[in-house]
Each structure stands twice: as structure tokens, then as C-alpha cells.
Design goal:
Blueprint lengths: L2 H8 L14 H14 L23 H14 L4 H11 L5 H14 L5 H16 L5 H11 L7 H16 L1 H6 L1 H15 L8 H17 L1 H4 L9
Helix pairs in contact: 2-3, 3-4, 5-7, 6-7, 7-10, 8-11, 10-11
């Protein structure tokens, strides 16, 4: 095992696996690209990683380097901001490989991911939304699907809180992505019913304020909620 591989092994996996359970194909691919990236990564600062250093860090394509950086974002929170700047530099025309890798991680394995990785996925969603990355609306819809009605676990409450915080702080992003509004209003109108207890009062108030604002300012898009495929 190389020193880079040993470093990754010392980190938490993206997901919690039961005995004998294999990693998903997406995680294996990301991990492999990260191994290549970290073989010589110590030679460069974050600001020096760009398309010209692909060969120098062991990666053969921009996609491999991008996927390695994505894995780094998920397992190294302290370096995530630097890795994300590298992604922006490398992918001036969008990040299809990053989005396409995030979708199965969220849609298929999000609930199995470690707490740290779940936090990094939400952090990355926020950053992708800020730069209006193509496809981030689909990422948003999948994250909303992970908020389950009737689930008062800490994990579910945290995700609802994180998303309502984003939508409230970045309301203009919702207005620029009206197709997402139906998903948001449908999901939070369902979640509000679960958060009536005093312990969830602060979250309930923020969810209610968001829904009222959406219904008041964007009734046309909210009116499509029953035709939106939200679950």
C-alpha cells in the first residue's frame, strides 16, 4: 500500500459499511482518483493545482483530477475550500463529472454516509449553487428527497435545518430556479406537520416563514406542487 493509500485508509470512508459489504462503484472511482491526486500532491499548494499539473500529480485527465478533488472535499473538510477553488479553475464550462458523481452518492448512499461526509455534501451543494453550476438543481431535489416526513431523528432534523437555512439565506437562488420551488414547498409543508413540538419551535418558525414567502411571492410555481414528482 502506498503512503497516499495509507493516508486515505486512516480517513473515514464515505459511508458506513456492514461486515462484508462492498463500497459502491462511485466511491471506488472517487477514491481511486484521489489516490492518484495525492501521490505527488504535497509538491503543490492548493492554488497551484490546475490543468497544467494533471500529469504531475498522477492524473491523466481533468475528469480524474476533478473526481480526486471531489473525494478530497468529502473527506478533508479543512481543505475543502481550497479543493473547491481548484474545481472552479479546472472546470470553466461546468462540472458534469462532479454532478454525475454526487447524484448517486446522494440518491443511493446518503443515509449510509458518515456524519462528516453528509455535512460536506450539503456544504458542496451550497457552494455549487453560489456559482450557479449546471445541474445543481437536481442535486437540490435529491437532497430534499432525503428529508423524510415522520422522521424526527437528529440526522433528519439536521438536514431539514440545513436546507431551510440555505433557502432562506439564498432565496434569490430559488427565484432563479423556479422548477425547484414546487419541490421545496411540497417538502416543507409536509415537514411542518412533524415539527410542532416545542423542541422544534425554532425550526418550525423558519420553515413556516419560508413557505409563506414562497406562497406569497411565487404562487404560480407553488401551484404546481401536486404535479411535481416529490416524495
Amino acid at each position: 500500500m502506498t503512503s497516499a493509500e495509507s493516508k486515505v485508509e486512516s480517513q473515514k470512508n464515505l459511508s458506513k459499511l456492514s461486515r462484508g459489504e462492498a463500497k459502491c462503484e462511485t466511491e471506488c472511482r472517487l477514491e481511486q482518483c484521489y489516490y492518484k491526486l495525492t501521490l505527488d500532491f504535497h509538491k503543490f499548494t492548493c492554488d497551484e493545482i490546475d490543468a497544467h499539473t494533471i500529469g504531475a500529480v498522477g492524473c491523466e485527465t481533468v475528469e480524474e483530477l476533478s473526481l480526486g478533488l471531489l473525494f478530497g472535499i468529502l473527506i478533508e473538510p479543512d481543505r475543502a475550500a481550497g479543493y473547491f477553488r481548484n474545481l472552479i479553475t479546472l472546470n470553466q464550462d461546468g462540472m458534469p463529472c462532479v454532478i454525475n458523481s454526487l447524484l448517486p452518492l446522494i440518491g443511493e448512499t446518503f443515509n449510509k454516509c458518515t456524519e462528516s461526509v453528509r455535512k460536506q455534501i450539503v456544504w458542496l451543494f451550497r457552494e455549487l449553487a453560489k456559482v450557479n453550476c449546471q445541474g445543481v438543481d437536481i442535486v437540490c431535489q435529491l437532497l430534499l428527497r432525503q428529508c423524510s416526513a415522520g422522521d424526527l431523528s437528529c440526522k433528519n432534523l439536521w438536514l431539514a435545518d440545513s436546507l431551510v437555512d440555505f433557502f432562506s439565506a439564498q432565496f434569490s437562488w430559488l427565484e432563479k430556479n423556479p422548477a425547484v420551488i414546487g419541490f421545496v414547498i411540497y417538502k416543507f409543508l409536509r415537514l411542518i406537520r412533524d415539527h410542532q413540538a416545542d423542541a422544534h419551535r425554532a425550526l418550525l418558525e423558519r420553515e413556516t416563514n419560508l413557505c409563506v414567502k414562497l406562497l406569497r411571492d411565487h404562487m404560480l410555481h407553488c401551484g404546481r406542487l401536486y404535479t411535481s414528482r416529490c416524495v
